[in-house]
Amino acid sequence: MQELHLSYTAIILATVANFFTGFLWYSVLFKDTWMKEMAIPTDTKPTAGMMVKSLLMNLVGCFFLAYVFAHNNAAWSFVPGIETLGTVGSIANAAIFTWLGFFLLVDLNTVAFEGRSWKMFFINTSYHFTMLLVSAIILHLL
Questions:
Q1: Which residues fall within 8 angstroms of residue 79, CB to CB, at 6 or more apart?
Q2: Whether residue 1 has pLDDT greater than 60
Q3: Do the domain assignments include residue 117?
Q4: pTM of the entire structure?
Q5: Domain for residue 3, yes or no?
Q6: Which residue range is the domain that position 18 belongs to?
Q7: Alpha-carbon distances of 142 from 9, 12, 135, rounded to whole Å
Q8: Nearest-5° angle of CA 134, CA 138, CA 141?
Q9: Domain tally for the chain?
């Protein structure tokens, strides 16, 4: 059995990069639209405790995403012929197929079963794809 080699430096960098991507996504780029779609008044301020709890949970989630994604990519690196994709192909393949197989379905279900708007769907699913793309770039280049 072959041993998987994971770069913990890349995993930590991907964790931090995704944490800041989420910050930019939901507090700078799409804050007003997201809050409107979630029916949260724009003047709502979370308590310090809520913010710390949310940020810590997000950081843990970003770590698990980066770690599992790194593990998955390392496992697939043993497939014959996968190296013919090249760096850009490997990055795109990892991000697109993980997004299609795991995130898109969940995001579509928020529209189908939770009654979320298509705006919310596009904000969230594009964020999920961006997280995977950022992670794939970092994990493949380090």
A1: none
A2: no
A3: yes
A4: 0.88
A5: no
A6: 8-141
A7: 8, 11, 11
A8: 135
A9: 1
